[in-house]
Amino acid sequence: MAESAIRFTVRNQAGQRAASWKCWSPSGKEDVYVICRDINGALKTSLHQSGRWQVAYFEGFFEESVLEEQHGTGPGRFIDTWDRPAPIAPGVTLALRIVTPWSATTIDDQSPPAQMAVVQAPPEGKAIEFVVFLRDRTIPPGDWPGRNSMGTTLVGAYTLPSGNTVQVVWWEIAMPDLGPLRGAPLFYHGRSMDDLRNSTGVGILLFADEPDGSKVIYDCVAKYRASEP
Q1: What is the domain extent for residue 102?
Q2: Is there a domain that residue 229 lies in?
Q3: pLDDT band at 197 (very low <50, low <70, confident <90, very high)
Q4: Domain tally for the chain?
């Protein structure tokens, strides 16, 4: 089935990229979905027309790879559910943020697909923030949130059947201070601590709430460090 989609990633000068993303709507639908393409088939963020939004495992992946009693996902495969937030300006809803630190470009990919929007990796200590906006009308070319006030750049846009618009923009920010991240790692079926211990870096996604009430996904890299005696 035909769909409208925006694909994007961050890539450094050596040809290594961070996770790549897809924001799309099926043909004839008002629902908007966002996935990390590198774990396609595992997790999906769903921005439903009904206003009930969620992050959830795909059913098949959840049943085959997620140990519910270990991950504590509560009601089945749903990780988080929330209501569509209030507009930040008339007709403008900030739907989702995706933050990619300078250190996340670890995937060798010399030839990204032609339809992929590629953003140059930021310098050390910085991050690229992608923001998915929902607009309540058809938007003329050259109009997107933060263009003048924040220096944002348009990644891509498409129009929904209602005439409303989906836009993805990016801008460079200082890497947020995530504080100490501690806790026992949990693994999907077939994975263990050895996979992390024997790797130079494993991509991880962190889900969080921003102070303004929006949801954010951090695209980071986890490295194994032996516990101090």
Answers
A1: 3-222
A2: no
A3: confident
A4: 1
